[in-house]
């Protein structure tokens, strides 16, 4: 499937103009004049993210901060969660109502791979859970499985499914293992073991299906803290080769359970994908809501989080050091590989570019539709 910006964006712009969208329309008109087709990507860094309606993969040149290509997958939207192949030639997108994953060639916009997770009367949904083996030959998803009977639904065991990425369209799983329930994101160690983010963080052997808890989260029983509240929808840490997710909690300062005197704090759970080291770290006070965040490359003591504010924390001192309000809610963020530029995405119809030192807004890149739950991925050619 191929797509140029002109026809794909036009369909999504009709009826969209409002008084509050004038600035975005000016930028979008510039995008519409750029004839993006199936031209190969040149060398450099690119930011990938998905927008809806539909499932459209947007490719942004991080040198110019311009939208240079769009690939319309031609399927209904899902979470828009995506991962990129190790050689940066194919992106894999979760679409079609959270049901299937599609692999699209970045140079040609051709869909060359797709899964078929549901069969017969077994319906499968994946939340934001897909990852690739280190060599890119195997795609893994977490499957929430239900048998649809005439008068009732039967909830089945959850599973981790493996797919051969050379299998073409409508590829069936080559292997399926029973897994913990409520898994929403996946990652993998460089050695190949799978990292499962759910009520706790699990490590699974992809050959045997055996798994173990490597980081307690909801099951953690620490008398110094209240139970953790973890929001796990977006795979965030690929820029630093780590699994990462935020949690909030209350730290008791006198009697356990006394919320009047408790300190409310933000923390993060992480797994080093090179070494497998798993840890939890408190990084700052809980003063505003945050949906997700990541550490800054080459400045790993700095944690950045976003929702309606863009906040920067010093991890070592667990303190807030910078904060600015953003134009609208953004669900996710990412960095250039050098850490010199910061990109906010998700929720709405643009990507905002910031200077991570000053938190000055450098640019707004209009997109043809909202990013919703999509994450972003940085690739290098």
Describe the structure using short key phrases.
381 residues; mainly beta; Methylamine Dehydrogenase, Chain H; four-stranded antiparallel β-sheet
What does this protein look like?
By secondary structure, this protein is mainly β. It contains two helices and 30 strands. It has helices at 5-13, 22-32; strands at 45-51, 56-61, 66-72, 82-84, 90-95, 100-105, 111-114, 122-125, 130-132, 138-148, 153-155, 159-164, 175-178, 185-188, 194-197, 201-204, 211-215, 229-230, 242-251, 263-272, 278-285, 290-296, 299-307, 309-314, 319-325, 332-335, 342-345, 350-354, 361-366, 376-380. Strands 8, 9, 10, 11, 12 and 13 form a six-stranded antiparallel sheet that branches. It has a four-stranded antiparallel sheet with strand order 3-2-1-30, with no helix packed on it. It has a four-stranded antiparallel sheet with strand order 4-5-6-7, with no helix packed on it. A hairpin with a 4-residue loop joins strand 1 (45-51) and strand 2.
Short description:
With 381 residues, the protein is mainly beta. Helix content is 5%, strand content 45%.
């Amino acid at each position: 499937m191929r797509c140029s910006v002109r026809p794909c964006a036009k369909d999504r712009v009709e009826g969209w103009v409002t008084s509050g969208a004038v600035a975005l329309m000016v930028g979008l008109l510039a995008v519409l004049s750029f004839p993006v087709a199936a031209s190969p990507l040149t060398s450099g860094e690119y930011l990938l993210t998905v927008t809806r309606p539909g499932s459209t993969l947007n490719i942004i040149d991080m040198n110019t901060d311009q939208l240079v290509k769009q690939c319309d997958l031609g399927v209904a939207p899902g979470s828009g969660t995506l991962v990129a192949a190790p050689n940066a030639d194919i992106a894999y997108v979760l679409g079609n109502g959270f049901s299937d994953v599609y692999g699209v060639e970045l140079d040609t916009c051709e869909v060359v791979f797709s899964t078929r997770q549901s069969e017969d009367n077994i319906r499968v949904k994946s939340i934001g859970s897909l990852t690739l083996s280190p060599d890119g030959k195997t795609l893994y998803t977490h499957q929430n499985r239900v048998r649809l009977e005439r008068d009732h639904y039967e909830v089945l065991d959850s599973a981790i499914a493996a797919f051969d990425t050379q299998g073409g369209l409508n590829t069936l799983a080559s292997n399926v293992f029973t897994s913990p329930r409520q898994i929403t994101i996946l990652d993998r160690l460089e050695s190949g073991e799978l990292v499962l983010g759910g009520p706790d963080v699990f490590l699974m052997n992809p050959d045997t299906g055996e798994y173990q808890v490597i980081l307690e989260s909801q099951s953690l029983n620490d008398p110094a803290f209240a139970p953790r509240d973890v929001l796990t929808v977006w795979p965030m840490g690929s820029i630093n080769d780590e699994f990462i997710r935020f949690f909030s909690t209350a730290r008791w300062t006198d009697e356990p359970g006394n919320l009047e005197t408790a300190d409310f704090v933000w923390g993060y759970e992480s797994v080093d994908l090179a070494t497998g080291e798993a840890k939890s770290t408190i990084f700052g006070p809980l003063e505003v809501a945050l949906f997700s965040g990541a550490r800054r490359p080459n400045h790993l003591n700095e944690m950045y989080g976003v929702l309606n504010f863009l906040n920067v924390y010093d991890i070592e001192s667990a303190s807030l050091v910078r904060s600015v309000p953003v134009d609208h809610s953004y669900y996710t963020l990412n960095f250039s590989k050098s850490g010199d530029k910061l990109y906010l995405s998700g929720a709405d119809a643009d990507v905002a570019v910031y200077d991570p030192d000053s938190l000055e807004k450098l640019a707004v890149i209009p997109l043809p539709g909202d990013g919703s739950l999509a994450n972003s991925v940085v690739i290098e050619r």
